């Protein structure tokens, strides 16, 4: 199985290890920019043995690679958790607030609990030591592992939503603003799994005759 040339390492985790925090959870999300479906957040604690893993940012991998690596994450992780914020929560809290809420729930699932966090520029409100660099999903093994779980779990849910709400093409575009999604919204209108607070959906609700 080939993997991209960008290779994560333990640099961010080691900053916490040096301070005595050995259970470092990587946190990442999938679906923040989508117009429909949940935003999904995963948290993963990998063994602090500085081993090398094949895990990479999920966006760099094929669907087959993501599924294979996600299975490996679940097998080797000290603990992991995945949680979702659905459109009603997103519309109520806004996308950032809902992402934070889902992250808190995912972290609460970890047993043993984390002592420190590394996120992909997600500046969570937490009392734990937090490192939140940009592109951490491509640079940190822990965050890459979380990105794999978040992406594969959200994709699975979007396949289910595609069966429940046929015609929107959720299986293909995963709820993002692709041309096929825009066309389906013009033909079918807004479904119960669309995020009504997002500008394109809000505009369609306010002006049904308007082309997206």
TrEMBL record:
Q: Does the keyword Cell wall biogenesis/degradation apply?
A: no
Cofactor(s) listed: Mn(2+); Mg(2+)
One Pfam match, given by its short name, reads: RNase_HII
Q: How is the cofactor bound?
A: Manganese or magnesium. Binds 1 divalent metal ion per monomer in the absence of substrate. May bind a second metal ion after substrate binding.
Which species is this record about? Deinococcus soli
Q: Tell me where the signal peptide lies.
A: none
Q: From the Swiss-Prot or TrEMBL record, give the protein name.
A: Ribonuclease
Report the enzyme's class at the first EC level: hydrolase
Q: Give the family, as the similarity comment puts it.
A: Belongs to the RNase HII family.
Q: Where is the RNase H type-2 domain?
A: 22-210
Q: Which UniProt keywords apply?
A: Cytoplasm, Endonuclease, Hydrolase, Manganese, Metal-binding, Nuclease
